[in-house]
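User: Assemble these into one structure.

Assistant: Restating your components, then the assembled model:
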Amino acid sequence: MTNLKVPYIFLIPCLVIIFLTLVGPVLQSFLLSLSEFSLVNPSQAPVGFQNYIALLSDSIFWKSIQVTLFLVFGSVVIEFVVGIFLALLITSSGPRARSIFSSIFIIPIAIAPIVVGILWSPNSVFDDLNTLLYYGLSLGVYIDTTRPFIYYSLIMISDAYIWAPLLMLVTVAIIRSIPREQYEAAEVMGASSWTKFNKITFPAIISSPAIIVTLLLRMADAFRMFEIPYAWNFWLGQDSELGASVDTVSVLMWKMFSSTMYDFPIAQITTIAIVLLIMTLSICALVLKRSSTLLD
Amino acid sequence: MSQTNKNNSRYIRYILLIFASLWVLWPISIMIEEGFRVDIGPAFSGRGASFVGEFFQGQGGIRFTTIEYVKALKVEAYPRLLVNSSIIAVSSVVVAILAGLPAGFTMAMYKFRGKTFITYALLAMRTISPFAVLLPFFLIYGRLGLFDTYQGMAFVYLIINLPIITMMMRGFFKDIPKEIFEAAFMSGASDSYILRKVALPLALPGLAAAAVFAFVGTWNEFFYALFLTGTVTKTVSRGVWSGFSESIESFKILEFDELNAGGTLAIIPAVILSLAVQRYLARGVTLGAAE
């Protein structure tokens, strides 16, 4: 229907909100990042890119970037693997089991991330598990949640807990769209379940634009991961320490913003925010390019 | 394949399904129990223990009490925070529908210049780190007196709700067979007539799903609430962390039982609503990009 007149007036409210909530504030953030604005220095006069240059040599910033990338990578990989596993379970079940269990599996999507920070805290799941290991089975071992390997894994698991169901939903849709004839042909040739997964299902999943776009969006989300590491800052007693071991970029900005020690350094915080924004905007550009449905 | 083999693989599948359900439900059930101050650890051993670092803290035990829930509901202001969250979320979603419904309709029906920009901007709103927009909001709200007001919070949450409503509605309008619209356009009906009389009635279940999904997203939001709400508009998800009293004590660390009771109360509405719209969850989260 390209020949008809486009009702541009229908787009105006949407555009107004985009400019007021996104474009305007982002531009002002960018201007602030070029100044020295803070609580003690209310001047918003631009001073060039010196905040960005200072950021390049800031070891705390680089550490938070490393932590963030590590957590992004770990949680997206776990989500992907668990999502495929759940999808295979769902698609190989009968219709009744399918509807019951997929309703159970998607519950975590509805849970606020801050609550998930509580769900997987050291005191919840691991108290019972540790009591079982230490006293119940008398193994004399327990899982120490203050060890970096354990708490990084737990943050990744918490994120995967929320979002693996999303990967499941997308993967189930992809598996359903694979023609049944492919499996029938494989069965005729005597292929095992593993061969069928390895040669038909997995290639179909991995080459689907839907899964690539979902993984990209999950990456963009994980870059700004805040609530779960925020909760873990308290579980580990690191909430007043800048550059603590679970400080993602967002948590670092929160600490700079809320601590009384740093004169409310708005210019520096917006500098980090703009750097983070550039990362997520590039991921969004990839999403737009790879998605087959967004622009048709 | 023999019959026993088939049966075996069915049992294995059921065992795996139950394990996967435990992965989802076990942490939630512990949260609900802890809210009742029940610690099932001792059932394994006859003694309770808490392992924080190297210290064994003798605590726990089965001492069922509803005091945390009663406290949240009666003494503290959980009902009040629930009203706050609902007012903010509903008004924000309504504004998002007013703006997003016509925009989603246009994006589903037409190809036009600037469509890429709008789609990209909505994706950016969906994925943006709140800090990239938060500080300008913080400064401007301070100046305009919008800090800690319902209208201010509803406006901020348009960042979450507008992309959801616009892109989900675009998807629902696209799902309607093209012939229906072609017939309407041929008869010379205007766009607003087609939107109101043809498209909207057919996409009404979709609109309900999009609205519910956006409501849950706003309900669960913690970051903007942490910075922009105060004693007037404190939301439930902020209350989970700092207590359900009306006062704001950002750094008050709650008792673990209290946190768990709060978490339980906060997720009940969100889980019920999300299960009602589960068919559309993937469309909502990915804005229809993954279809």
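Strands of chain B lie at 50-52, 55-57.
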